[in-house]
Amino acid sequence: MERFFFDIQSGRDFFADEEGLRLPNQKAAQLEALQTLAGIAKESISGGERPDLAVEVRSTSERLFCVSIIYRNATTQH
Q1: What is the 3-state secondary structure (H, E, C) of 5-49?
Q2: Per-residue pLDDT reduced to its tens digit, 5-57
Q3: Are 73 and 32 in contact (CB under 8 A)?
């Protein structure tokens, strides 16, 4: 089992995962990242906020991938 770290970006705030989780493979880490992101998004929206959110996943040696939600409304310029 490999240790994966799930760093959180919420708007301008960054929270580094210092502990990580031991998971069987990268596919399990992808599922964990998506579930984490969905939970954070749900809490943010129910609290009246809509910051851009990201979960950056890394191993002990490298960055692996990032899942994100970018909030835009009709008046947002791209």
Answers
A1: EEEEEECCEEECCCCCEEECCHHHHHHHHHHHHHHHHHHHHHCCC
A2: 999 999 899 999 999 999 999 999 999 999 999 999 988 877 777 789 999 99
A3: no
Contact between 78 and 22 (Cβ < 8 Å): no
Contact present, 21 and 6 (Cβ < 8 Å)? yes
Query: Has residue 61 got a pLDDT over 80?
Result: yes
pTM score, two decimals? 0.85
Q: In whole angstroms, how far apart are CA 68 and each of 27, 37, 57, 58?
A: 17, 7, 11, 15
